[in-house]
Design brief:
- 2 copies of one chain form a homodimer.
- Chain A is an alpha/beta fold.
- Helices cover about 45% and strands about 15% of the residues of chain A.
- Chain A has 2 domains: about 150 residues, Rossmann fold (3-Layer(aba) Sandwich), CATH 3.40.50.720; about 100 residues, ProC-like, C-terminal domain (N-(1-d-carboxylethyl)-l-norvaline Dehydrogenase, domain 2, Orthogonal Bundle).
- In chain A, helix 3 links the parallel strand 7 and strand 8.
Amino acid sequence: MIKVAIIGSGNVAQHLIVAFENSQIKDNAVELIQIFSRKREKLAHLITLERITDDYQKLVEADVYIIAVSDDAIAGVVAKIPFKNRLVVHTSGSFPLNALNENNRRGVFYPLQTFSKNKTVDFSTIPICLESENPFDYQILNSVAKSISNSVFAINSQQRKALHVAAVFVNNFTNYLYQIGNEICEQHHVPFEILKPLIAETANKILVLSPQEAQTGPAKRNDSETIQAHETFLLDENHLLIYKLLTQAIKDNGKKL
Amino acid sequence: MIKVAIIGSGNVAQHLIVAFENSQIKDNAVELIQIFSRKREKLAHLITLERITDDYQKLVEADVYIIAVSDDAIAGVVAKIPFKNRLVVHTSGSFPLNALNENNRRGVFYPLQTFSKNKTVDFSTIPICLESENPFDYQILNSVAKSISNSVFAINSQQRKALHVAAVFVNNFTNYLYQIGNEICEQHHVPFEILKPLIAETANKILVLSPQEAQTGPAKRNDSETIQAHETFLLDENHLLIYKLLTQAIKDNGKKL
């Protein structure tokens, strides 16, 4: 049985705790033996207090320590780890492996998903991107990851950086486009609800078509009359700037192909 | 029983034919009596040839004629319609109601969804936006729309224009962000597959959270270190421009709130 400890109590840590606890019910391959949280009560709804410590000196021996804290807190955690030569991994998309202290064996355990506090996710479908310094540690991480997910990938630090930037486009920026859609609806007293099936279908399409195949709309058709009408219609300077830039990009892209 | 005729043979027309044929199996409230298609064989896989005409003069009497052709073909169809005083509607998001000929009673029957040739859609969840010149015609359109969809809205021409522009943001532009994600993955030899669960969850979140609540990422957190690292990382001038503009917009938006 592989022993896992988690350091952190935020969104990612909490989703990982739930995933490991559920996996242990099905299969005893991985055991979540301890959590470090500065406030023990914060996790009391997920796990018994005996398994939560707020003292780095009381961290028990584990096969892998997963640091699940925000990027700017990683260095602080690393500085406080009291042991050596153990496998310590972080869960960050943007931190390189070597941001961890070389006193320990280093690795990355990056679940590529957006986690919200009050929205459960099915961890089994979440891709987990792994990196380690040696093949033995990779095997440990691989077993741990496979106990909670069906989608596990070996991804080096450079590739992970690419995924993290790409994720900003498909997640953060896409969500901001939803917000612009919402703002346009509000300005014209139309319920945003009407757009939700379109949002769902746009995301669904990408499961079966490439983005190039799925592209539609006035920019793709080079329909200058509609584009002109939209540009005249947009009241918000910021919406207009984004409309123009993305329309031009889609038009130029058509020329490239 | 309300008699419906469809003029057109493209994506929207074909999806409507399937939806009306399926609805008639369940409930006899609406009958699809005829389709106009310049090439009758094009629709032979969907409907018997007897119900397809390629001659405007042979259009039979119906309670409503749905013009389901591309925007730039609507004027051509309107010019060829040989009858008067009947209810004629188009399916366009961007055309105003009064683009139709006033010899007939005019209306709009706009299903707000993205239709692909080889991907079936569940029409019952697709919002249909209706507009008419008088309440009696609205009742006809409402009955026709409700026979195929559970989501029917009265939307005037100005509101429909807003929805159409908003749809460009949440559908066409979002799909283009997926393409940028794909391009970044290809440049760094990472499978785009890894991003698909994130794309799905980003769209899912918007069903339960407002776009403002759902917004995450370095721009939202004002995490200048990560933003700087991403900007250095991006190889493509076009990706960089879009990254900068959307990052700035999300940051400014945070200040507004």
